[in-house]
Design goal:
Layout (H helix, E strand, L loop, with lengths): L1 E2 L3 H10 L8 E4 L5 E3 L13 E9 L2 E4 L9 E14 L3 E6 L2 E6 L10 E6 L3 E6 L3 E6 L1 E6 L4 E3 L15 E8 L2 E5 L4 E3 L7 E5 L2 E5 L3 E8 L2 E5 L4 E3 L2 E8 L2 E3 L11 E5 L5 E4 L2 E3 L4 E5 L6 E3 L2 E3 L17 E3 L11 E3 L2 E3 L6 E3 L7 E4 L2 E3 L4 H6 L11 E2 L7 E4 L2 E3 L68
Parallel strand pairs: 2-4, 3-5, 4-6, 5-7, 6-8, 6-9, 7-10, 8-11, 9-12, 10-13, 11-14, 12-15, 13-16, 14-19, 15-20, 16-21, 19-22, 20-23, 21-24, 22-25, 23-26, 24-27, 25-28, 26-29, 27-30, 28-31, 29-32, 30-33, 31-34, 32-35, 33-36, 34-37, 35-38
Antiparallel strand pairs: 1-2, 17-18
């Protein structure tokens, strides 16, 4: 480790990441695999300092005990090429007990991803935990991991230091990363055991509640070929946004209850918007959170179509909403989404605890269960496949949704439906200039308002569950 290296190089990199107030730069040679602020080499790292990681190959990278501040995070950035990790270890990069840090792969303009985890044969690409909080991770690529891509959580244990009310994971920011070919989740953010998990402490089974997440932003990431869920966020009770992500070919392992493009798990209240989800084997978007969630401007294509294609009873939907952790009388807002060719229902809404829910201005085309409901031995009709309510107690406002079996009626610019740009509209589309603005959502996926009128080639959509309120 070399301290106080050429300030010009450091300043150029720091301006690029908007962190020009650094006090000291530290050069981390390519052969260094441990950064520990409690060690002699790095004990002088202070808030606002920067670690410059020399490009080259590493077996793994372990980062511990770095402490910045809200105004001056400790910045870690690559220099002179990418940092490359190819390992038989059980992780590629591990960040432990760090707070107010930023790890960014923007140090070389010739490399989009300055930290590159090429392979982890026995574990995950990156783990951020052990009481870590207030961190930002960007421009990292992770590929070929036997377990997950990015794990960002601290599970409770018998030390009782990470229990709910004792520890909160603040400001989890993960953006502009690339994840491909991982065995489990592409991203696993927050604990899925929101209601508690059983741990044996001092020989006794004890229910421990996991910590909550306050302030989550997951955006501009690409996740491809995840074995399980593409992006999973749980226990994020406040300030959570999941947006502008591309999720392709999720749920390849076909693991039961681990199959979705994006899932908001127990305890989560989030805005989920402007995501492109295509060709996955699972549900496009699942929401099992608190309610108060807004799900808008997402494009979901062929959700579940390649899963058990000959068996309509093994269902995968464009969107799925449940009561796993819904707060009584909270609301879901499902607005301006395009759901194209799902294997089963377009939207399956199973929540009865929530109230005053709105499903408005969505496009739902060719749900796979239409013929199964219409002609099979079920109690449903084909039209129920667009927006399905398994329980008539659901309270939902339905308004201005475009429902059709044939995509031609929507007049998208392309019939390929492989990228988000294929869903721009031709002149004369029935969806132009007829939408409503709901719950502060006033734009579409492209950033402009793409209104949707109340039109359907199956006739009027009838919906009469108990306590429903259809407002116009």
């Amino acid at each position: 480790m070399i301290k106080n290296i050429a300030w010009t190089v450091c300043l150029i990199l720091l301006i690029h990441v908007k962190q020009a107030n650094s006090q000291t730069c530290f050069l981390v040679p390519a052969n260094v695999i441990l950064i520990d602020a409690k060690s002699k080499s790095y004990q002088s790292v202070k808030p606002g300092d920067t670690l410059l990681f020399e490009g080259g190959k590493k077996n793994y990278l372990l980062i511990r005990n770095l402490m910045g501040s809200a105004e001056k995070p400790v910045v870690m950035i690559n220099k002179a090429g990418p940092v490359i990790i190819d390992t038989d270890n059980y992780y590629g990069i591990s960040i432990q007990n760090c707070r107010f840090i930023k790890l960014t792969g923007t140090g070389d303009p010739g490399q989009q991803y300055g930290f590159q985890v090429k392979r982890v044969s026995h574990g995950a690409g990156m783990g951020i935990g052990k009481l870590s909080s207030d961190f930002e991770i960007d421009h990292v690529s992770i590929e070929n991991c036997s377990i997950g891509g990015i794990y960002a959580k601290t599970d409770p244990d018998c030390s009782l230091t990470s229990l709910r009310g004792t520890f909160t994971q603040y400001n989890t920011i993960i953006h502009d990363n690339y994840i491909s070919n991982v065995g489990n989740e592409g991203m696993y953010i927050g604990s899925t055991k929101f209601k508690g998990q059983k741990v044996k402490c001092n020989g006794k089974d004890t229910i421990l509640l996991p910590s909550l997440l306050d302030g989550v932003k997951v955006y501009n990431n690409i996740v491809k070929y995840a074995g399980w869920d593409g992006i999973q966020v749980s226990s994020a009770y406040k300030g959570c946004q999941i947006y502008n992500n591309t999720v392709l070919y999720d749920s390849q392992a076909e693991e039961k209850d681990q199959m979705s493009g994006i899932i908001m798990g127990g305890g989560t209240r989030a805005d989920c918007f402007n995501n492109f989800i295509s060709q996955g084997k699972g549900d496009g978007i699942e929401c099992h959170g608190h309610g108060g969630c807004r799900i808008f401007n997402n494009i979901i294509v062929d959700a579940g179509r390649s899963f058990a294609s000959s068996d309509p009873t093994q269902m995968k939907h464009g969107m799925l909403f449940t009561d796993v952790s819904v707060e009584q009388d909270s609301s879901f807002y499902i607005l301006n989404n395009d759901i194209i060719n799902p294997k089963s229902d377009g939207i399956r809404f199973s929540s009865v605890k929530s109230r005053n829910n709105i499903i408005s201005s969505n496009v739902i085309l060719n749900p796979g269960t239409y013929d199964y409901y219409q002609n099979g031995n079920t109690s449903h009709k084909g039209k129920d496949s667009y927006i399905m309510f398994p329980d008539s107690r659901a309270e939902v406002i339905l308004r201005n949704n475009f429902l059709a079996r044939n995509a031609d009626s929507a007049k998208f610019v392309s019939t390929k439906m492989l990228t988000a740009n294929d869903f721009n509209l031709e002149a004369g589309s029935p969806m132009i200039d007829n939408a409503e603005v709901d719950n502060s959502v006033n734009s579409d996926f492209s950033g402009t308002l793409r209104p949707i009128g109340e039109k359907s080639d199956i006739g009027a959509f009838e919906f009469n569950p108990r306590s429903s309120r259809i407002n116009h």
